[in-house]
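Bug report (template v2)

What were you trying to do?
Predict the complex of my protein with magnesium ion.

What happened?
Run completed; filing so the output is reviewed.

Input:
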Amino acid sequence: MEKLKAIASSFMLKGEVTEISPLGNGLINDTYRVCTSEGESYVLQRVNNAIFKDVELLQHNIECVTMHIRTKLQEAGEKDLDRKVLEFIPLKDSPRTYWTDGETYWRVSAFIKDSVTVETVNPEYSYHAGKAFGNFQAMLADIPEQLGETIPDFHNMELRARQLREAVEADAAGRLAEDEVREILAEIETHIDDMCLAERLHREGKLPKRICHCDTKVSNMLFDKEGNVLCVIDLDTVMPSFIFSDFGDFLRTAANKVAEDCPEIDKVAFDMDIFRSFAKGYLESASVFLTPVEKENLPYAAALFPFMQAVRFFADYINGDTYYKTSYPEHNLVRTRNQMALFRSVMTHMDEMAAFCRK
Ligand code: GN1
Ligand code: MG
């Protein structure tokens, strides 16, 4: 903790650091809450630079995005600015917003007062979330700076399929010996071509990349106590992507009746009430910029994300769990089973979703 205290203290905080405690449950970065003698709270986060290789670019993206949103909100007369967009704190001796000793990277943002995160949402929350993510993309539609990809090809299904095939080829952990692993692999293979539609459309010039959040799971939104969305957090993956990313990844977590690692597979199901509420909110705020191709493929996005996540968890399982934090040896396999069950459930609702989006 002394080390963390020293790191936190090198940022321009109000007051002296008095307390540091762990916060949240992300699978990639380590996060702490910092309290100071002046009663202020901050979020201290270690950026996982094994995964985010270019922290400088990442922080540049985040600074551009938060400043752009702040200006937009200000222009719109927003009164509660500090709770509606994250603020990154510079170092005491430099305008840089991250600290590094050459090995680890840390940053600090202001803690948003009276905010909560949730792991599950009801239809009402989902409607607000849909509006919030649509707005987030709409506000970023005219960002003047060029943003880079903090993880190149992050949501590229062709790449994820390739990585799975490489993992299978290497079989580093000997897990291909398991019958179930081979069965899951066979099932995944039958869907890969269909699920690579976005990359094909992009190559044909029919699908643009826009600035997206790319990690829109439910727990990456802050709500106030009344259930209104305050702002979107966890901006590491904000980058150019297809709008499917934000639409699909929210539903992947929000519309699953259980958590992404729930081992009770028979309880996994895609909740159409959540879909309808979220899609309604999203379409209300995103319609200003969505093209017909983007709009008509929203049901595909709902299917793509559980599928892509299954492929990613599965490749990590086969690689011997080198990417996602796991709590037990089969954790990534359980996650894979869960996401494949969700994918199958989504696929039974394709026509219904298409009809809803056409309305
Ligand atoms: C990771 O760290 P966290 O939980 O915000 C992952 C997402 C996955 C998610 C699955 C950079 O996000 O893409 O959807 O786990 N982030 C990265 O829970 O790989
Ligand atoms: Mg994340």
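What did the reviewer find?
The first strand starts at residue 17 and ends at 22. The beta strands are 17-22, 30-36, 41-47, 99-100, 105-110, 210-212, 221-223, 229-232, 239-241.
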